Sequence to fold (156 residues):
Amino acid sequence: MNLNATLFAQLIVFFILAWFTMKFVWPPMMKAIDERAKKIADGLAAAERGKQALAEANRTVEQELAKTRSEAQQRLADVEKRAHQIIEEAKQQAEAERKRILAQAEAEAAQEAQRAREALRDQLATLVVQGAEQILKKEINAQAHADLLNQLKAEL
Fold:
């Protein structure tokens, strides 16, 4: 066998195989590789979008939590403020009730004092009449002296 002929035949077979591979095998392989690369790129892009969406969702959740905490603190402050208002209103009502009871007690005390004065005036008038009766040792006209005693009561 001739080495040159073998080498030439191998060269022709190599070029035919290369041409066949480039024409029929290479395009589907490149297409499959390109599709796979596109799928990988799409997957990476989707993963990146997912990360961004997750980060955005986390930011939204944090904002909502902060807003909720703020609202809860505001409501708590409002409740505490209202409780203080209720306490102040109750204190004012109690103070008004205390003043009313005190005024009523003072009025009752004044009435009692007035009654006691009247009773003392009556007793004083009776004592005056008895004293005058004993001094004069005679009978006193009750009607005439009742007017006199009423006048004395009015002066006292």
